Every structure is written in C-alpha cells, then in structure tokens.
C-alpha cells in the first residue's frame, strides 16, 4: 500500500521527509507522542480506568459518584466530526462512512418503503415489556419458516421478546447474567465495551482473533477455554462487525452445540441477511444459529436481531431477542426497569414486514445492491493501492489495514483525523479493541492500524468518501508527511489542539 510505485513508503514526498521532526513522527511508539491519540484520551470516558474501584478520576466525575462510561466509536467520531464542521442538518456536504446504518431509501427490486403507520386507540397504551403478542408470533414464524422447517422443536411467541433496539436487547440480557466469566473476541462490535464495563457482574475474558486465519473463531480452542477458564457465557457478533467475516456451516453448528454443554452462547445476528454469494443460486439465503438448535427451550442459545439492519429501518427501534422461554421471562423483568418496552404503534406496523414472502424480496434485493456497493469500494481502494487483504463476505463493513502506509498515516486515529479535514468520517480500529479497562497503550492494540469503512450509505456518498481518501494520499505524495499528524480542531470555533499545552496541564 505504498503511495508511489517507484518509491518505498519511507521516501514518500520531498527530501524534507528526513527532517528530525518527521523522523520523530515516523518512530511513534506510544500514544503520548501523538496528537490524535491525546485528543482521544481526553474525551470523557476514554482515559485509563483506575485499578481500584474506589478510586475516582476527578477529570471524569460529572457529579459525586457519577463517571463517564465512554462513548461508542460512532458517537466519538460524530462528535469529532462536529468539531470539524459536520452537522446532520447539512450532512450532504460530508461522506459519513462511519455510521453503522444502511441506506434507508428505495433500492432496486425491493418492496416499497413504508411511508405511514396506523394508530389504533389501543396502540396508545403501553405495550407489554415482552412485546405485542402478534409481533412475537410473526418473529417466531419467520425463524421457523427460514431455518427450522421439518424440525420437531419450533419457536413460539414465548421464545421471543421485543426490545427497543439492539443495545436494549444486549442490556436486558446483560442485566440477567450472573457473576460469571464472559468471553468476547477482539475485534468486535464497539458497544460490547460499554456493556462489559457497565454491568459489573460480567467478568470479561478476551480472545484475540488472528488476521492470519481471517479472524476465524477457533471452536476447538473455545471449548478448551471453557474447560480451563470456566467460561459461562460467550458473546459474539455473527456475521462479524467489523471484519465482515461470518461463522457458518459446521463451525456455527459446533458453536451452537456449546449451548448444550453448560455455556450460554449469545449471538448478535443483525447482519444475517448481508451475505454476498458468488453463485446466482445462493442469492436470498441468510445465516442464523437458529438453524442448528435442537431444542428451542433447552439449548442455551440467545439470538439478537431486528429491523435495524436487515429491514433497513434503524429509526423504528424494533428488535428482538430469541431464546428459551425461561430467558424471555427474565428479560421481561429486566426490561421493566431498564427501558419499559418498545414503541407500541411501531410494533404493530412491523408485523406485515415479517411475512416470509415480503422478507424474500427484501433479502435478495438487499444482497444484490450491497454487494455491488462493496465491489465498487473495493475497486476504488485497489486503484489507490489500498488493497483489502481480508475482503468482507458479509455485513456492510470493510476492515482496512493501514500498516503499510508511511507514518503517521499508518494508524487509524491519525488517518481518521486527516479524513475529517476532507469532510469524511470513518471509525478508527481501536474502538473494536474491546478493552473495558482502557489501560492498554493504544499503539499496542491489534486494531491500531485499522479503520472500519461502512458501505451502508448510498453509492454517491461512497464515491465522495473514496475521493477524500485519494486527496489524503495525493497530499502525502505532494507534501510528504510534514502535512500530517497535527493541527486537529478541538471545537467548531476553530481551536486547535496543542500537544505541548496539554502535557503542561
């Protein structure tokens, strides 16, 4: 991924690249030497957590006893973008390749987008904390139709809890998990960091996934970890955010089987339709662990999904948790004090959208449209010599390795800050390093050299974002590395970050 075919990365730009200041930048080894990393650490909730729980960081205590939990990657990056002039009211001027949301408008050959919802008088009342029965039945029927035809054990409405968004589903589940060791993988969905930090009874146990094996979850090693470490819960996204990989076939079957051996498996399946087949006959297929469940009430498998990604309706906040009936009872109780339940009218409006015939049209249209967008972004990156070593098989994310770029562009936080100057947003890879204590030197993170690019937005936004990538690389060719790694705005009024002043305070 060098910037010039005739020169190695260390000689990009003019002879001034040998300037001593640039030499220091080239050899960054710690986050305290980097302006982008200092800005990140100064954001509330992103400082190093104290080892002793009774120790309070006065810089992060808002009022006595209250601490900042830290923002997810999307929120942090949106705040930084706003400091550089981004606003949702004028978002057309920017390319937001950071937001984890699909485009919500019409796409070719998909059913028409919903434009109105009914408001019967009964819908003005509270809905049950487990959700409207008719919607719960529709969810159960869809899983049975798609993944469980011919199986003796079938889901019913009693296996489904409707929740107001995926994070609410995760929070409800986390609230009913006891004092147990909970396994998670790195990299994975950024919100898991906050979940594992906020619910103190969960004892987080990390597993680093290896890019050499395409971030594959080693099921055999997972089983050994259960025996040697006493893991009681496994939490994972599938398909995988941010790497775009997917656990399927026999690997998924074996993972589900773990749920029959005394360990609970929680799978976040929000990208289950975003599968990109190579063969025409495979369009319209999706993936779910529900296919491999033997007994819906005895297998310790929990699935979280909803309208947010697959139906491209993130604003509806209608999602669900599927699992054994005794789990649903517990989730009803945790929902009563966490969120109070999902929007009643939107639940009713969602019911026809889960009809299998409607779903079949949505699913195939989505796969064809998003695969074309994926291929276009990969093509643009290839033209810039930013080849993706592990292209996404699923989701709408590209996990881009920057390590071969010259410093300081070769780390995600600095590359992110430079793209903000070009009115483009991506997510630095360190947000997917689920690290609840935040004590690791960021330069040592396995995610440090990555950014996540979303190809969820419309194609014109993707092209605009790729143009910004090109401008950054052209600037590097023209000016060398002198232009990068500094002069980042801290607020919309134009205040620039001063590393020297920061260290002095």
UniProtKB/TrEMBL annotation:
<dbReference type="Pfam" id="PF00155">
    <property type="entry name" value="Aminotran_1_2"/>
</dbReference>
<dbReference type="GO" id="GO:0006520">
    <property type="term" value="P:amino acid metabolic process"/>
</dbReference>
<protein>
    <submittedName>
        <fullName>Pyridoxal phosphate-dependent transferase</fullName>
    </submittedName>
</protein>
<dbReference type="InterPro" id="IPR015421">
    <property type="entry name" value="PyrdxlP-dep_Trfase_major"/>
</dbReference>
<dbReference type="InterPro" id="IPR015424">
    <property type="entry name" value="PyrdxlP-dep_Trfase"/>
</dbReference>
<dbReference type="InterPro" id="IPR050596">
    <property type="entry name" value="AspAT/PAT-like"/>
</dbReference>
<dbReference type="GO" id="GO:0008483">
    <property type="term" value="F:transaminase activity"/>
</dbReference>
<dbReference type="InterPro" id="IPR004839">
    <property type="entry name" value="Aminotransferase_I/II_large"/>
</dbReference>
<keyword id="KW-0032">Aminotransferase</keyword>
<feature type="domain" description="Aminotransferase class I/classII large">
    <location>
        <begin position="117"/>
        <end position="468"/>
    </location>
</feature>
<keyword id="KW-0808">Transferase</keyword>
<comment type="similarity">
    <text>Belongs to the class-I pyridoxal-phosphate-dependent aminotransferase family.</text>
</comment>
<dbReference type="GO" id="GO:0030170">
    <property type="term" value="F:pyridoxal phosphate binding"/>
</dbReference>
<keyword id="KW-0663">Pyridoxal phosphate</keyword>
